[in-house]
Specification:
Structural class: mainly alpha
Radius of gyration: 32 Å
Strand content: under 5%
């Protein structure tokens, strides 16, 4: 013979599980609905991103977000012939290079900017800026066939591969 208390506990537990099942089914329905909304949002954002990318191609912005950080853009000179389109540090670099009047070393530009020129790694970001300015037409290509990319070698700068 089965104890009536055990049957009552089983029935009570079954009722609890039935209630829990109903709650879980409701939650699962909510999760499904939210996932469907997110899928729609992803499609909308993808379309907007494509439209924005097309608009940005026509007009270059002053900065973009990369990895959560604002990164300055240097426009091609043909798109913006006015130097005011450049960030201030790039304008200063242009002034220094133009004052030299010929091929220039990164060390020379670094010294004029007050950088620690003794440490080679400190000049690499400056080298990248010079290359970017040359590649985008802000600095002229020199008679050596290369752009005024700076190097730390003494003598005439022939750093077209730097």
């Amino acid at each position: 013979m089965v104890d009536p208390g055990v049957l009552e506990r089983i029935a009570a537990r079954r009722a609890e599980l039935d209630s829990l099942e109903e709650q879980l089914v409701k939650q699962l329905d909510q999760v499904g609905a939210e996932r469907a909304e997110l899928a729609v949002a992803e499609r909308v954002l993808a379309r907007l991103s494509e439209q924005i990318a097309g608009e940005r191609a026509a007009v270059a912005p002053a900065s973009v977000q990369v990895g959560g950080r604002a990164v300055l853009l240097v426009p091609h000179r043909g798109h913006s012939p006015d130097e005011t389109a450049l960030p201030g540090d790039y304008r200063r670099i242009l002034e220094i290079v133009r004052a030299v009047g010929g091929p220039v070393q990164v060390r020379t530009v670094g010294e004029a900017l007050g950088l620690q020129v003794e440490a080679r790694g400190k000049l690499e970001p400056l080298r990248a800026k010079l290359v970017k300015l040359a590649d985008r037409g802000w600095l002229p290509n020199w008679a050596t066939g290369g752009s005024p990319r700076a190097c730390n070698r003494p003598g005439p700068a022939r750093c077209s591969g730097a």
